[in-house]
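Design job #97: recover the sequence.
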């Protein structure tokens, strides 16, 4: 146990010895699951044709995740691959995707609003969100409905922040190994009318890092205000973050993550990542709105900046990027006969910029030259009308369908001489536009009170990211890219009762015009891939307080084309895509009483290949985590978390590039101690 945790236990000891009053027991029955992301309004999950998963506030509070990876393990089909510090890569019904546009396959939302413009995502953008204080994390696996557009290819993640409510304040402090400390504050003050007032949260944490020179400091916060006016309801929101991180690079050598002399070292002590982001939103609902008919007008402004060393590349260039953007979403809900219809129109304008500069001497073949590689900015313009409808065919059978049309344009301005510069190619000034049409259709059948069966056929798409179009490599005079699309067929079954909730889904997807980057960082376009899998989520409770929860996935992700990449890999039709485990899963067993909760969690990650040739692989791992929470008084709670109880030697991410095995080693056994007060 680390000194901060030991001191906290000593201070708390007298209170524990004095005994604890009884606290009302946690509910033994599971509530009916209500979702909001998939339909943009609260809907019982049993009435929705499609998959959805929700991590609620009680689990978010119990986990108090120090990295978004820990929340991802709660959801079938999801792997937020942990990097150094707060870095991550995302996989949702997909392999872990890399490269400048890989993040374009996932739509990341905060209260239903995309946190980045469609063409300027970042692979690490989830760390910008105050997910540690969220009331829920909702995930849609695979492409969604017509209500969301570009980037909802493999999945959608929506972080839902607290709404104004009853007056209250909550404060917590946590300590852990490697000088980890965290403080959180949440304050809510009600207004004159129900659901009005303000709520705000603030988080600060510091981690010294378990590897040499790998610590970080970050702060996150949000503020929401809601008021009822004579003409309608106005909601204002703000959120933002600041990250100051020392980044640890890959350790090299086969199985080096097991070597005690290597795994805690940092081959790139000079590496860093500095980032900040802010988002401002406003939502207006006219007073004339009714339960069946109404309007929502949502406006937003966003900006972000990032400066980091690309330690994972030869030459280690520095990248600086940023974006400023804004837009409006207009939604209209109405009934057309027996059909419930949501029609909308999205408009978005953004300006993004990127600079890449290599201070180190020339290196590699083709050469990665010293000097400025890229310096450009681009305007993005987006407009998209869409509609989604639900029509009851019978009392038990509902037909859903939707259609989205989206137009996106880039106006690119290069600030350096156009042409080839070593490995890199800089296009001359140009404009590019993309138009996509995406339909979806589904059936939801209710054979009984507690169950539902559904089938969906959905198309997802994304326009190429600006970095894929204008950050070219030698031999790419023009990035002649089409929009990436995916077609998904899914069958699912749900059961909801007071003590048992089950969701099972099987899917088959085919992706076209796949834009990817191989393990040696060579760009590949016009690829195809196939994705087959089954997912299972189970929540079980009992009257005595015992509970269990399961998230399990089996998936096969394969290339559906063959190509020999000059200087890179050989891709073969039917081979597994690299960094795509066949199996993922987690199981939680626990007990909750009047004032005590105890839980054990098993997290599984299966083996996966590291290259397209299937010649190198990582064997996978299994981890055991323990958690216990004690309501000492009605206001005070203590929580202890122990991760990786067996002190397993594992890799958060394994890779093979530039002729060598590379790893981000997993963390050792860790003990965290938290004290929380609320009223």
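Job complete. Output follows.
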């Amino acid at each position: 146990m680390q000194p901060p945790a030991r001191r906290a236990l000593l201070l708390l000891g007298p209170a524990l010895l004095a005994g604890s009053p009884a606290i009302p027991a946690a509910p033994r029955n599971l509530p009916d699951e209500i979702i909001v992301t998939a339909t943009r309004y609260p809907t019982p999950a049993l009435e929705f044709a499609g998959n959805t998963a929700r991590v609620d506030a009680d689990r978010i509070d119990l986990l108090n995740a120090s990295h978004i990876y820990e929340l991802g393990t709660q959801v079938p089909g999801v792997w937020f691959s942990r990097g150094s510090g707060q870095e991550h890569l995302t996989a949702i019904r997909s392999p872990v995707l890399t490269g400048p546009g890989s993040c374009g396959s996932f739509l990341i939302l905060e209260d239903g609003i995309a946190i980045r413009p469609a063409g300027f995502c970042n692979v690490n953008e989830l760390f910008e969100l105050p997910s540690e204080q969220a009331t829920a994390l909702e995930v849609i696996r695979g492409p969604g409905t017509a209500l969301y557009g570009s980037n909802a290819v493999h999945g959608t993640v929506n972080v839902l922040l607290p709404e104004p409510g009853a007056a209250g304040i909550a404060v917590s402090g946590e300590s852990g190994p490697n000088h980890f400390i965290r403080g959180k504050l949440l304050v809510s003050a009600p207004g004159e009318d129900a659901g009005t007032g303000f709520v705000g949260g603030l988080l600060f944490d510091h981690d010294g890092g378990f590897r040499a020179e790998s610590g970080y400091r970050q702060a996150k916060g949000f503020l929401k205000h809601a008021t009822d006016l004579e003409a309608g309801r106005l909601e204002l929101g703000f959120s933002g973050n600041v990250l100051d991180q020392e980044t640890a690079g890959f350790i090299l050598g086969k199985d080096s993550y097991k070597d005690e002399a290597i795994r805690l070292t940092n081959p790139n002590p000079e590496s860093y990542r500095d980032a900040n982001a802010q988002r401002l939103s406003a939502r207006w609902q006219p007073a004339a709105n009714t339960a069946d008919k109404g309007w929502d007008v949502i406006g937003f402004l966003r900006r972000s900046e990032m400066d980091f060393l690309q330690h994972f590349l030869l030459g280690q260039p520095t990248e600086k990027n940023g974006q400023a953007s804004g837009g409006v979403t207009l939604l209209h809900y109405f009934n057309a006969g027996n059909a419930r219809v949501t029609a909308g129109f999205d408009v978005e304008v953004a300006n993004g910029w990127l600079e890449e500069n290599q201070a180190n001497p020339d290196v590699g073949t083709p050469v990665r030259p010293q000097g400025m590689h890229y310096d450009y900015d681009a305007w993005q313009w987006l407009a998209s009308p869409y509609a989604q409808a639900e029509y009851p065919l019978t009392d038990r059978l509902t037909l859903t369908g939707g259609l989205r049309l989206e137009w996106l344009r880039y106006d690119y301005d290069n600030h350096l001489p156009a042409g080839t510069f070593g490995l890199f190619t800089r296009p001359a000034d140009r404009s590019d536009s993309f138009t996509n049409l995406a339909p979806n259709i589904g059936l939801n059948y209710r054979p009984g009170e507690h169950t539902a069966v559904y089938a969906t056929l959905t198309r997802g798409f994304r326009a190429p990211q600006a970095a894929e179009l204008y950050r070219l490599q030698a031999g790419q005079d023009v990035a002649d890219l089409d929009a990436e699309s995916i077609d998904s067929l899914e069958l699912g079954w749900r059961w909801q009762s007071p003590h048992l909730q089950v969701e099972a889904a099987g899917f088959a997807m085919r992706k076209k015009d796949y834009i990817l980057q191989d393990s040696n960082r060579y760009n590949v376009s016009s690829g195809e891939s196939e994705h087959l899998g089954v997912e299972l989520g189970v929540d079980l409770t009992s009257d005595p307080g015992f509970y269990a929860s399961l998230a399990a996935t089996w998936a096969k992700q394969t290339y559906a084309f063959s190509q020999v990449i000059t200087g890179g890999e050989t891709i073969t039709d039917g081979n597994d895509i690299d960094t795509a485990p066949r199996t993922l899963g987690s199981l939680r067993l626990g007990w909750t009483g009047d004032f005590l909760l105890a839980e054990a969690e098993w997290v599984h990650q299966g083996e996966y290949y590291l290259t397209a040739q299937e010649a190198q692989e990582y064997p996978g791992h299994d981890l055991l985590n323990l958690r216990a929470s004690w309501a000492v008084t009605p206001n005070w709670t203590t929580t202890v978390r122990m991760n990786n109880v067996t002190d397993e030697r594992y890799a958060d991410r394994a890779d093979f590039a530039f002729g060598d095995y590379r790893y981000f080693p997993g963390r050792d056994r860790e003990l965290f101690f938290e004290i929380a007060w609320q009223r």
